[in-house]
Design a protein that fits this description.
Length: 396
């Protein structure tokens, strides 16, 4: 039977993009996820919530994933996990313990038939129909950049910095607390208004990325007048005044260079410098931004201005690149990777490259797409594994 006939007869595959803050879940072949929910579990006994990625050990992670994935299947997707294959969209920085525990939960607890782990930066290019791009994911915990050339991730040129939504929210909370301490009457209960959810909501609704010119003037002795203040209703009864200075300064932490002269904008230029000469121009003209933090108002315009400003420095003048182009993906930045997984899951790769339940139960290991042993022909992989065992026996 041809592959396309077997694919059409199967049920839609489940596509899951587990983010540190939000999880996107839906079915392969669809243009958007069925739901986007927080990556957390609420305990029925205590009513408290705990983020899945804030686990203390493997046993706690296993219990959190069991509860969370059960919620995905039986509350949101309303399907049986045994009937459908699964596509997991994962990041390069996903801990090995997390992916192995996730595979254990899916295969041993929910008994799914197969799981396919796909790299988020690579499948995101499926939404553009191109194989070459500089993919930057500005999510919750970190900003991760990986150049992809002709469908191959250039792993030696990857860049990562803890400059994302979490850093912005910490900076915003610090500024709000300082402003509250400086006022005699804050007019609200701080414990109710400055929760993590409230800080995130304030960031999304009121804050924006200011221009490079205004950011430079704010550091001088004669700063420009601030934007208007905004009144934010915290819990239905209390209000808080968000000053214009806080609104335009919250995202500055992403562009402020640290002691190593690193920021979100330098990550792009440093990655291009680490690539061969023939790759640099195609990568500079194919930049893809994704992740929830990349949706901030003014983020892309500020990033372009920062890159042009950095090109005047001696460190980056040897690039000899004047044009930087950004792609506009056919989806919101926060679920571009999920859409790529949905497109990828609609091809025959889900059949030929998935890890089946029988193989997992026999070998008890999850192939790593970043390891070259798993990205070669079957006979070559067996030869490498055999040579590795022989070398180990000789050393013993």
């Amino acid at each position: 039977m041809p592959i396309f006939e077997s694919l059409s007869s199967e049920k839609q595959f489940v596509v899951i993009d587990l983010g540190a803050a939000y999880t996107k879940v839906g079915f392969a072949g669809e243009t958007g996820p069925r739901c986007i929910i927080r990556t957390e579990v609420k305990y029925a006994e205590t009513g408290k919530t705990k983020k899945v990625f804030n686990y203390a050990n493997e046993d706690e992670l296993y219990d959190l994933l069991v509860d969370f994935i059960h919620n995905l299947y039986f509350r949101h997707l309303l399907v049986s996990p045994k009937d459908r294959r699964v596509v997991i969209v994962e990041s390069l920085l996903c801990p090995t313990l997390f992916r192995e525990t996730l595979a254990k939960v899916l295969f041993r607890h929910f008994e799914v038939s197969s799981v396919l782990f796909v790299p988020s930066h690579l499948v995101a290019l499926c939404t553009l129909g191109t194989g070459t791009a500089l993919v930057m994911d500005v999510g919750y915990q970190e900003a991760l950049l990986i150049p992809v050339f002709e469908g191959v991730p250039v792993l030696h040129a990857w860049q990562s910095q803890p400059l994302a939504a979490q850093a912005v929210e910490r900076s915003l909370k610090s500024m709000l607390m300082k402003e509250r301490d400086g006022e005699a009457d804050f007019g609200m209960d701080p414990t109710a208004s400055l929760s993590d959810e409230s800080i995130e909501d304030i960031k999304v609704r009121t804050c924006f990325v200011t221009s490079l010119e205004r950011a430079q003037k704010l550091e001088t002795d004669s700063p420009p007048p601030p934007p208007p203040s905004v009144t934010y209703r915290a819990d239905g009864s209390h209000t808080i005044e968000i000053s214009g200075t806080i609104r335009e300064s919250a995202f500055e932490i992403l562009f402020e260079q640290d002691n190593d002269e690193m920021s979100v904008s330098t990550m792009i230029l440093d990655a291009i410098l680490k690539c061969p000469l023939d790759m640099r121009k195609p990568l500079a003209e194919n930049i893809l931004l994704m992740g929830g933090s990349a949706m901030a108002l003014g983020f892309k315009a500020r990033l372009v201005a920062e890159i042009k400003h950095l090109l005047t420095r001696p460190k980056y003048s040897k690039l000899a690149i004047k044009t930087f182009k950004f792609h506009t993906p056919p989806a919101k930045e926060n679920y571009v990777a999920w859409l790529g997984g949905s497109i990828f899951g609609g091809t025959d790769m889900i059949i030929t490259r998935s890890l089946s339940k029988e193989t997992y139960l026999k070998e008890n290991q999850v192939p790593d797409w970043a390891c070259l042993i798993y990205n070669c022909k079957e006979e070559d992989r067996l030869s490498v594994a055999t040579d590795g065992r022989r070398a180990t026996q000789r050393s013993i």
